[in-house]
């Protein structure tokens, strides 16, 4: 063997041997934050469910106003038809 080949083999063995010293968990779990809490999982789930029920569908700062109608659909249609008759915006049977 030549001198360079011996050095190369020695370097390869040293690199392979030192690889085991750097072994650690693959997911880096040693850096994960550890939390201690006094609340149970059921308490947190109940709080989340209550927050979801009381949440508004309207975006914050929106000017959307919702109304609840007290008139049924038939009354609204009848009023619209009467208004159209008054204004003259209805089609006649013989053409317009």
Word description of this protein:
By secondary structure, the protein is mainly α. It contains 3 helices and no strands. The longest helix is centred in the first third of the chain and has 17 residues. The radius of gyration is 39 Å and the shape is elongated. The N and C termini lie far apart (108 Å). 0% of the residues are buried.
- Cα-atom radius of gyration: 39 Å
Distance separating the two termini: 108 Å
Instruction: Provide mean pLDDT, rounded.
Output: 78
Please report the total strand number as a whole number.
0
Count every helix, treating DSSP H or I runs of 4 or more residues as helices.
Answer: 3
| Strand-pairing-aware structural class | mainly alpha
- Percentage of residues in strands: under 5%
Largest sheet, strands/sense/barrel: none
Low-confidence stretches: none
Helix/strand order: HHH
Proportion in helices = 40-55%
Anisotropy-based shape:
elongated
How is this structure best summarized?
The chain has 96 residues and is an all-alpha fold.
Q: Key features?
A:
mainly alpha, 3 helices
How are the secondary structure elements laid out?
Blueprint: H1 3-19, H2 41-54, H3 73-87
């Amino acid at each position: 063997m030549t001198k360079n080949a011996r050095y190369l083999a020695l370097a390869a063995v040293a690199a392979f041997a030192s690889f085991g010293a750097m072994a650690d968990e693959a997911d880096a779990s040693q850096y994960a934050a550890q939390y201690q809490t006094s609340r149970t999982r059921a308490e947190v789930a109940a709080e989340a469910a209550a927050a979801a029920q009381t949440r508004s569908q309207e975006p914050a700062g929106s000017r959307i106003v919702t109304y609840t109608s007290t008139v049924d659909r038939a009354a609204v249609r009848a009023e619209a038809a009467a208004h159209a008759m008054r204004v003259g915006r209805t089609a006649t049977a013989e053409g317009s």
